[in-house]
Amino acid sequence: MVHSVVPALAVATTLSSMALLAPMADAHQIVLLPEPQWTTNDKDTKYNPLAFLENQGFKTQEDFLSWRNENNYKSLRDFMDNAKYEVTSGADFSCGFTDPKGTPQPIPAGNAMRSTGYTHDGPCEVWLDDTMV
What we know:
The chain is α+β, with helices and mostly antiparallel strands. It has one domain. Helix content is 14%, strand content 17%. A 3-stranded antiparallel beta sheet has the order 1-4-3, with no helix packed on it. The two termini are 25 Å apart. The N terminus is likely disordered.
């Protein structure tokens, strides 16, 4: 289990987008702090990515920044919000497997978030509402 601390916090992250970056992406992580409110209690579902992009015509990229710029996306979030892809069965396009009607969580002490899981190199953006932090 890998733990990481990020100096800034956002409830919504786009970690599932890492499938775009590494061939055979089959490793995922979830946010632990602040604790999300899930639509399921099933661990396998919680770790399921928002979408398997490589199965939808998106080739994995070692240099996502160049690809993003070539395809006119301003940020990773812009790609995740506006690209044309289908989400995993049971997922909500905007919230994945977290409850879109869940109670907003406070920013933890020290402005830190914690996540766990098996990760791979790639871009990661953390957003607090409409501000990338």
